[in-house]
C-alpha cells in the first residue's frame, strides 16, 4: 500500500470525543519507549507525525492519525512507565482499556515488544487481557536494527514460547525497525487486506 497522505486528526483523554467510528482503525500499544510513535512515523514515512522521545511517557493521549483519508492509525500512551504515579497508572488503565473494549471500528491491536528483551511479565499479562476480552492482536518486535538478526529471532522465540503457555495459537508476528524500515511493507500489506474487507462489510 502506498501512503499518499497522513495527517494528525485529534488527541483525546476522553473516549466520547473520539472521531466517529466509521473508518477501520488500528491501535499501537506497548511499554513506554518501546517505539510505538516511531513505528507510526516509519509506516507513514512522516518523521514528525507522532511525537517521539528518549524519555518514556511521551505519548499521553489517544492520538488519531488519518491515513489516505480512509483509515486511522492510533498512537496510545505506553504502559509500564515506572515514574507514573499509581493513580495515573490506574487512570491509564481505565481509559485505554475502555477504549480497546468498546471501539467498534478497532480492527486489531498491534502489541509492540522490544526485540532486545527477554519476555516481560507486563507484556504477557497485557496480551492475556486482550485474549480474555476477545480483542484481536498481533505482535510487533521493535528496534531490530539494534542487534543481530539471530538475537532478535532468539528473543522472539522466547516470547512465542511464553505466550503459548496461555494461548493455543500464536498471533501473527512482525519483526520491525523504524530506523531502517524493516517490516514496514508487511504491516502495511496486512492493514490493506483488512481495510478491503471493512469496505465490503460496512460500505459508507
Ligand atoms: N534504533 C532504533 N531506535 C528506535 C526504534 N524505534 C524507536 N526508537 C527510539 O526509541 C525511543 C522511544 O521511541 P518512541 O517511538 O517515542 O516510543 P513510544 O513507545 O512511543 O514511547 P511513549 O510514547 O513514551 O510510550 C526514541 O528515542 C526512538 O528514537 C527503532 O526501530 N530503532
Ligand atoms: Mg509514543
From TrEMBL:
Asked if the Swiss-Prot or TrEMBL record annotates the protein with the keyword Lipoprotein, the reply is: no
UniProt keyword annotation of Nucleotide-binding present:
yes
Keyword terms, alphabetized: Cell cycle, Cell division, GTP-binding, Magnesium, Metal-binding, Nucleotide-binding, Septation
SUPFAM superfamilies under this entry?
P-loop containing nucleoside triphosphate hydrolases (SSF52540)
The record's listing under PROSITE patterns reads: G_ENGB
What GO molecular function terms would the record report? GTP binding; metal ion binding
List required co-factors: Mg(2+)
Could you tell me which Pfam families the record lists for this protein? MMR_HSR1 (PF01926)
BP GO terms, sorted: division septum assembly
Enumerate the spans annotated as EngB-type G domain.
22-197
Query: What does it do?
Result: Necessary for normal cell division and for the maintenance of normal septation.
The UniProt similarity line reads:
Belongs to the TRAFAC class TrmE-Era-EngA-EngB-Septin-like GTPase superfamily. EngB GTPase family.
Q: What is this protein called?
A: Probable GTP-binding protein EngB
